[in-house]
Amino acid sequence: MFIIIENFEFITRGSTSQYSFKHKSHEPKCYHIRQDMNQAFFPVEDYIAHRGRMKLLDAVVDVDAQNAVVRSVTTEAWPLFEGGAIRPIVIVELVAQTAGINIRWEEMQESRGREKEGGGLLVGIKEAVFYVPRIRVDATVITSARKQYAHMNYAEYHGFSKIGGDILGEATIQVLRTD
């Protein structure tokens, strides 16, 4: 599998499913990327409460204890659509919903299938960088979020969204679970 990401340099990690990329102006970050990005095997609605216009994720591509990777197709119904395109700040919400997939997956693993009443998530933006001025409609966007730190009900996630090999932006978010 070849991954081409402009402005990033590939750093070998030794595992076939772990890849690390160092942005020319940032510290190295490691992301779990599934080889077959077209295979979706988890229904999004089982993991996040978002519905209607606010449900930006179409399919969960992969999820484990540290990472989540999702696929979305942009539409005119998305929030921040104006003038024929979507403002890139929506990447923060994509990363937040992707982190929510990881959080809910972990809860499901801990409860071993027992129904658990979930609380809400309060999300703050620690840092966000956008590399494009607009995101086109009808584009397939892949978003990856990786847990960087967790303690009790607090966690930090770093994620990015891309179309093909082009990184649209990245965000580091802080998540506080309210349960």
Discrete helix count: 1
Tell me roughly what share of residues is in helical segments: 10-25%
Cα distance spanning the termini: 41 Å
The oligomeric status of these chains comes to single chain
What is the N-to-C order of secondary-structure elements (H for helix, E for strand)?
A: EEEEEEEHEEEEE
Task: Average the pLDDT over all residues and give the rounded result.
Answer: 78
Runs with pLDDT <50, length 5+? 1-40
Key traits:
1 helix, three-stranded antiparallel β-sheet, mainly beta, six-stranded antiparallel β-sheet, globular, 179 residues
Structure report:
This protein has one helix spanning about 90-110; strands at about 10, 20-25, 30, 60-65, 65-75, 80, 85, 120-130, 135, 140-150, 155-165, 165-175. The strands form 3 sheets. The protein has a 6-stranded antiparallel sheet, with helices on one face. With about 180 residues, it is mainly β. The chain is about 10% helix and about 45% strand.
